[in-house]
Amino acid sequence: MRLASILVAICAAEAFAGTTPEDGAVIAKSNDSTVSELMIQIAGHEGDPAEKVFRNIRIPWLKNVPAGTFLTIMKDGYAAALGVRCEYCHVEGDFSKDDKRPKRAAREMAAMHHGINQQLAKMQELKPRPGGRFINCSTCHRGAVSPLSDE
Ligand code: HEC
Ligand code: HEC
User: Fold this and answer.
1) pLDDT in tens, 61-88
2) How would DSSP label each residue in 47-66?
3) What is the pTM assigned to this prediction?
């Protein structure tokens, strides 16, 4: 009896904390519309380097990516890999701000991902793969904020 009521209390607390995963389709729709709004704002400059169009691009290999492609990377690469909305990493209304810890963590992750690809390219004992070998955010995250199994 006692244990059961404790369990009920824990479950209720979790539900209250909002741990139910949000519907992926709802998140995807929100991200699509955020990107559409930004595409309108940068209209005419989609092909210009991201660092010229946006204000705070620090990841070296993203600086020269066309601004339109950069937004696709944000949506299909970053947000979809983690299964989150843009706002998980970004302050609403100003994408250049670094206030949110996950945005800063994503920069560290980008460096790790880049390093792994450089190491993969140097490996001698893998079987040949004509297109080369690249991992990306989804290789680990697969739609979840944490790829670690203990959470
Ligand atoms: C997992 C975290 C994460 C998610 C989710 C994410 N971003 Fe980003 N975003 C970043 C990081 C990190 C940068 C900075 C890149 C750099 O320093 O080169 C950035 C930069 C940007 C910038 C440039 C802002 C500026 O002026 O410097 C825009 C615009 C942007 N993101 C849009 C989006 C959109 C739209 C979405 C959702 C579809 C999104 N981001 C989802 C991490 C994220
Ligand atoms: C080699 C595996 C791996 C790759 C590749 C990877 N991540 Fe991660 N990521 C992790 C692990 C492990 C954690 C820590 C999870 C934890 O502590 O629960 C993490 C955590 C994060 C977090 C922090 C989430 C939070 O709220 O604390 C963000 C943001 C993130 N990753 C974004 C990215 C992005 C963006 C990419 C691609 C550029 C990426 N990750 C690539 C393994 C990876």
Assistant:
1) 999 999 999 999 999 999 999 999 999 9
2) TSBHHHHSS---SGGGTTSB
3) 0.90
Ligand nearest to the CA of 150: 2
Distance 149 CA to ligand 2 centre (A): 13
Ligand nearest to the CA of 35: 1
Share of residues in the chain with pLDDT > 90 (%) = 83
Closest-CA residue, ligand 1 atom 14, reads: 57
Instruction: Name the residue of 70, 103, 140 to mutate for ligand 2: max ligand atoms within 8 A of Cβ.
Output: 140
The CATH number of 18-141, from 1.10.10, 1.10.150, 1.10.468, 3.30.300, is 1.10.468
**DSSP 8-state code for residue 76:** I
DSSP H helical segments within the chain, as ranges?
2-16, 24-41, 50-53, 67-72, 80-82, 101-122, 137-141
